[in-house]
Amino acid sequence: MTEQFNVQTLNQFIIQRQSEYPGAKGELSRLLHHIGIAAKIINRAVNKAGLVDILGEQGDQNVQGEDQQKLDVFADSHFINALKASGECCAVASEENENIILFEDEMGRNGKYVFCMDPLDGSSNIDVNVSIGSIFSIYERISPRGEVAKIEDFLQEGTKQVAAGYIIYGSSTMLVYTTGNGVNGFTLDPSIGEFCLSHPNIKTPKSGTIYSINEGNYINFHSGVKKYIKFCQEKDAKSKRPYTSRYIGSLVADFHRNLLKGGIFIYPQTNKNSNGKLRLLYECNPIAFIAEQAGGKATDGKQRILKIAPEAIHQRVPFYTGSTNMMKKAEEFLDFFDNI
Ligand code: AHM
Ligand code: MG
């Protein structure tokens, strides 16, 4: 068998990128390195989920009133430990914690970045061996270094993200991230325990044939979304319709597939939930940053996700993201039918 000598690991890639910025002091690189470590620890636990007593419900509910799974708690605490150990992070906002977590010791107070995360996305899929993920978003704090971080450090619009990414625990484990200079994907090679560059400079197709939405909520959708779903299902050979419906129920997995293949993901507002379900800070903003960096789009149906001014750390927003041409078409339906 021919040995491959051109493998680039995540850490090599991070260091190479850092050297392209002469003034960079390595702070973001160190933070990203520690995220890679947390990802490997969580991956190990996810892979053992059916084997050890880590599977099942923790018995508590998180701030959204949902049952917490043991792995949610595990992922949350391992990310927090890794962020603390990096010395570059001053505070964390997590789906699993009602309030922000402040690193108040000297090293934490001096940290340059705040970190938003959904430590285990799609957690209802854990018990049934379906792909799940972790999502993260990094901002430079606006409060002075040396002080304890403030809530305002987190309430910055998505355009201010310095990095964002996700880890997908699927048929293989991948880490995909951007620092605003394209999107790169790394696949975990279990034989060497390293994330290796497998998907350099990801670009999403301009058009696709996949639509992803929980159609069980159809009756509660607004008419623009209903009409768009019908459009996806109509026959039109020229535009390759009917499209294929694919919905896993794990945002990371649904988005990742559509990113690579071309498609649209929608979690809209409904008659029951005017802001949809997904959270702006640690689900929609990081995914939107990646979508745009890959040449796609992300909106709340009206405006760019990345331009929304956050008001609260657990804020929800309607979410539409995917291939540019599909997004444009969906927006036409929303504009027309939701305004008559
Ligand atoms: P979670 O963070 O509690 O796991 O919830 C978020 C998940 C997303 O991954 C997914 O897109 C969505 O919830 C699915 O929701 P639904 O079951 O309502 O379709
Ligand atoms: Mg979750």
TrEMBL record:
Record EC number: 3.1.3.11
Classification via SUPFAM superfamilies: Carbohydrate phosphatase
Localization terms from the record: Cytoplasm
Fructose-1-6-bisphosphatase class 1 C-terminal domain boundaries: 205-334
Any single biological process term in GO: fructose 1,6-bisphosphate metabolic process
Pfam family of the protein (one): FBPase
Signal peptide: none
Domain Fructose-1-6-bisphosphatase class I N-terminal: 9-200
Residues that coordinate or bind Mg(2+) 2: D118, D121, E283
CDD domains the record matches: FBPase
Binding-site residues, Mg(2+) 1: E95, D118, L120
NCBIfam families: PRK09293.1-1 (NF006778), PRK09293.1-3 (NF006779)
Subunit structure: Homotetramer.
HAMAP family: FBPase_class1
Protein name, as recorded: Fructose-1,6-bisphosphatase class 1
Lineage, broadest ranks: Bacteria, Pseudomonadati, Bacteroidota, Bacteroidia, Marinilabiliales
Gene: fbp
